[in-house]
Amino acid sequence: MKDIAPFSLLPGAQYEMMSIAFGGKGRSVKTPKELESALKEMLSDNHLWVLNIIIDPAADQKPTKFSWLTTAKDIQAPKL
After folding, report:
1. CA 7 vs CA 4, 30, 64, 72, 79: distances in Å
2. Torsion angles phi and psi, residue 9, rounded to 5
3. Could you give the CA distance from residue 54 to residue 75 in angstroms, rounded to a whole number?
4. 2 vs 31: CA distance, rounded Å
5. pLDDT digits (tens, 9 = 90+) for 10-47
6. Contacts for 25-34 with beta carbons within 8 Å, 24 or more apart?
7. How many CB atoms lie within 10 A of CB 50?
8. With left for phi above 0 and alpha for psi between -120 and 50, is residue 69 left, alpha or beta?
9. DSSP reduced 3-state for 51
10. pTM of this structure
11. What is the C-alpha separation between 42 and 44, in angstroms, rounded?
């Protein structure tokens, strides 16, 4: 099994559950239609919200290179 750094974001994690655990609301969305619906609900509400937007990890990305940006490959997890 490959070690996962503690600061890594995991695609299958249900991050919206953090908000629910603290009395807020949360949604996980995968499609633009689900996103639109969740945003409407979220913006009409005064609760704490976490909106977990699932994106395709294989989607095309524009190359970015900024001097201030640290990429995951630049960070070494501490060896225990």
Report:
1. 8, 23, 21, 9, 14
2. -95, 130
3. 24
4. 30
5. 778 899 999 999 999 999 999 999 999 999 999 999 99
6. 25/49, 26/50, 26/51, 26/52, 27/51, 27/52, 28/52, 28/54, 29/53, 29/54, 30/54
7. 19
8. beta
9. strand
10. 0.61
11. 6
